[in-house]
Amino acid sequence: xxxxxxxxxxxxxxxxxxxxxxxxxxxxxxxxxxxxxxxxxxxxxxxxxxxxxxxxxxxxxxxxxxxxxxxxxxxxxxxxxxxxxxxxxxxxxxxxxxxxxxxxxxxxxxxxxxxxxxxxxxxxxxxxxxxxxxxxxxxxxxxxxxxxxxxxxxxxxxxxxxxxxxxxxxxxxxxxxxxxxxxxxxxxxxxxxxxxxxxxxxxxxxxxxxxxxxxxxxxxxxxxxxxxxxxxxxxxxxxxxxxxxxxxxxxxxxxxxxxxxxxxxxxxxxxxxxxxxxx
Amino acid sequence: xxxxxxxxxxxxxxxxxxxxxxxxxxxxxxxxxxxxxxxxxxxxxxxxxxxxxxxxxxxxxxxxxxxxxxxxxxxxxxxxxxxxxxxxxxxxxxxxxxxxxxxxxxxxxxxxxxxxxxxxxxxxxxxxxxxxxxxxxxxxxxxxxxxxxxxxxxxxxxxxxxxxxxxxxxxxxxxxxxxxxxxxxxxxxxxxxxxxxxxxxxxxxxxxxxxxxxxxxxxxxxxxxxxxxxxxxxxxxxxxxxxxxxxxxxxxxxxxxxxxxxxxxxxxxxxxxxxxxxxxxxxxxxxxxxxxxxxxxx
Lengths: 279, 298
Fold this sequence. Notes:
The complex is a heterodimer.
Chain A: E1 3-8, E2 16-17, H1 23-26, H2 31-35, E3 38-41, E4 44-47, H3 48-51, E5 52-55, E6 58-67, E7 71-72, E8 82-87, E9 101-105, E10 117-123, E11 144-149, E12 165-168, E13 184-187, E14 203-206, E15 218-224, H4 226-236, E16 251-257, E17 265-270, H5 275-278
Parallel strand pairs in A: 1-6, 2-7, 6-8, 8-9, 9-10, 10-11, 11-12, 12-13, 13-14, 14-17
Antiparallel strand pairs in A: 1-5, 3-4, 15-16, 16-17
Chain B: E1 2-3, E2 6-8, E3 12-26, H1 30-41, E4 53-60, E5 71-78, H2 81-96, E6 103-106, E7 114-115, H3 117-120, E8 129-133, E9 136-143, E10 146-151, E11 153-154, E12 157-169, H4 172-186, E13 192-193, E14 205-207, E15 216-218, E16 240-248, H5 251-266, E17 274-278, E18 289-292, H6 293-296
Parallel strand pairs in B: 2-17
Antiparallel strand pairs in B: 1-2, 3-5, 3-6, 3-12, 3-18, 4-5, 7-11, 8-9, 9-10, 12-16, 12-17, 13-16, 14-15
């Protein structure tokens, strides 16, 4: 069966909420019903057929072509299957994701994977701020799953995240891993100022020294960290896209904190390689 | 039935249902992985008094282990899940966690989950860290050599314990050489262990005793020194009997292990002192698994 494919006919003028386009919501619907779905469009609603050409029938595997940053809430609350997007997407990608895989072949906006509790989001491009973070008022950010960004990400990556993993192959902005409760963030290029500010637990792994570490982190010196060996072995076994982790060893400079919050988190700055040579 | 001149008794080995798990121990190198594994499998020859039966299953190359270091897989068998849940954290805690550079992972994922790191994490006294990778939870426990990594739980499975055969020979030396060869061959079969020292039982037992407090006692019918004194199973020429006991994850693997083991023993033949092959059973009423020697060796 061919994937159920939505191809944008024209570039939307307003933000278009495509939260309904998930395998969960489209299962059992025929093409006529799908075409007549009404999507929030700016302040109004629009019939799906006016903006998208719909082809294919496999609702477990959804494809969105010619996407742009006006499309928001892609994959919201999805629990199984896959969504493959060719082009950019806007904010709140994969929020409340429970399972399945979302792949974006383009850039994504802010709040990727907020409150997600499972599944995986792959962004083959850059992403905005607050990746895997909790929305204002939420106690926690993402509680499980994985977000992989092949480009760079903005500020406050993993703010208040509770569990799961975020891997950023490029740069991360300021306050990466701020207020983390647990989980793992890996940044393979330069991170901005104050990573881990306010973190209670969790691990931030940086391939390069960040712009600035807050004074409330204490250096534990250079160590061989057995967990890194396990982590990198497990990641490199996940497929070609993770083979870069073969190059890393367990040696890292460990900082623990944030002591201002009596935190037991850690920032591990890898000692073994210049990533530019590997990337 | 005779194989290479060795008589195969028309009898069967009687085996019991057990519960089992597999764990993987890794360390800086194989030497230290063996130290941890040997400590864990120590005093684990028989459930009669040890609580479990455990042995090394095989060596693992770095590409086969979760953390990319050399490792060893062990199989641990117990009569009930409760026993397994008691033995695993205790043995991993005292034998693996205390071994420098060692780490411990699940070798079976499915089935009832038996706590490992889930119990041992408290040793971290609040500094332990939980990490989830690919839906598997690991515990990082800070210890003096660095950190002890232990998977949260290990899975378990139904298993079979007590597959066995007896090697009846002219002398102990004859029996021992043949049994050593048999154990070597059995170790090549996946999913089985021979938990007794060197894989060989020097003092096979029968169920019960004249003493009320003993659950098992010497199998006098196969003791050469009691020939003539008891209703012995031994003929004049037999001067020593050794037993090989096999635990396995399923009936098929025990079948195969018994087959290769008996074949190896028989290859020594009467010229090298091997007279008969027999097996231990309790009349067939106690264990649901019956491994008939002649059927296996057909």
